[in-house]
Amino acid sequence: MLDTHDGIGVIDAGPSAHREGLISFEEMRDIFERAAVATRGHSALASVLPAWTALPHQINATFFSTLGADPTAYLLCRAVQLFVPGTPQIYYVGLLAGLDDTDLYARTANGRDVNRHFYSPDEIAEALAAEVPRAILALVRLRATHAAFDGDFSWEAGGDSLRLAWRTAGASAVLEARVTRGDVGFVLEVSGPDGPVRFDGVTALAG
């Protein structure tokens, strides 16, 4: 899970009591600061600071907004989410690549509402026709139906690259990611009875 109706739970990955956490307090602070830059300061205004910590509990912004509405960076995050083991869950605003609903936040003064847009049927249809949601749905279908995901998972990471792979007899699905700041990209290669297929970005996945 990357995002929820309550926001983006950065603090959940940080240190707690005697446990080190997946990311440090300084890395958490950097994430909040980068989100604030991407949202032009709005996430810093909307995110609530609890009395028991020096950082907000969550980023109150849509995941797409915190990445500056960059389709490639966003699809890479979703691809990693859908490739790691477990049962992936995608929040509806995240699926539709929604941006911050600043009007709703202005009306309610509830920071979480910035990521709780009320979609009309026409807005849903328009969003589902757009490239980014189509690409996300393609990843969902791949994860749900491709035989490779019934096999063995492996991963490699080094420098600014990441490789996630699933393999079983006669099928494979491999995600290779480049995460250099300012130069983000990914390639997805899948193979099965119909032979290999390569997707080298958002447009290719959207079909």
From TrEMBL:
Give the signal peptide as a residue range, or say none if absent.
none
Tell me which Pfam families the record gives.
Suc_Porlyase_C (PF09244)
Domain of life, per UniProt, equals Bacteria
Please state every residue range assigned to the domain named Sucrose phosphorylase C-terminal: 148-182
Q: Spell out the family assignment given in the record's similarity comment.
A: Belongs to the glycosyl hydrolase 13 family. Sucrose phosphorylase subfamily.
The name on file for this protein is Sucrose phosphorylase C-terminal domain-containing protein
Species: Naasia aerilata
